[in-house]
Amino acid sequence: MQLVVGDVHHLDMVMLREDGSEAWPKAIAWLDQATNRIRLDLLLLGKGEGIRNADVIASFIRMTQDPAWGMPRGLYLDNESEYG
């Protein structure tokens, strides 16, 4: 947990919503650089929605509350809008 890298990934798996429309899941990913462990939070968003800053914050909090993870010493994030 010296350095954890955060990133959002758009998965190439199409799913059907209850209304029959197509949806592609998104993953908020956390990588512990020291151990190469990856933690994912998967989201299936509504039509036209994207990952928001609030989604990333909630995922980060869940990571820090997970007894197998905890609080990282350093955090590396790209400059995408959801990290703003």
- Distance between the ends: 23 Å
In which range does the helix fraction lie? 10-25%
Query: Which sequence of SSEs, written as H and E, runs from N to C?
Result: EEEEEHE
Mean pLDDT: 92
Spatial arrangement of strands, main beta sheet: 5-4-1-6
Task: Report on this structure.
By secondary structure, this protein is of the alpha+beta class. It has 1 helix and 6 strands. The chain has one helix at residues 53-65; strands at residues 3-10, 15-16, 22-23, 26-32, 37-43, 74-77. The strands form 2 sheets. The protein has a 4-stranded mixed beta sheet with strand order 5-4-1-6, with helices on one face. The chain starts with a strand and ends in a 7-residue tail after the last strand.
Topology:
Layout: E1 3-10, E2 15-16, E3 22-23, E4 26-32, E5 37-43, H1 53-65, E6 74-77
Summarize the structure.
The protein has 84 residues and is α+β, with helices and mostly antiparallel strands.
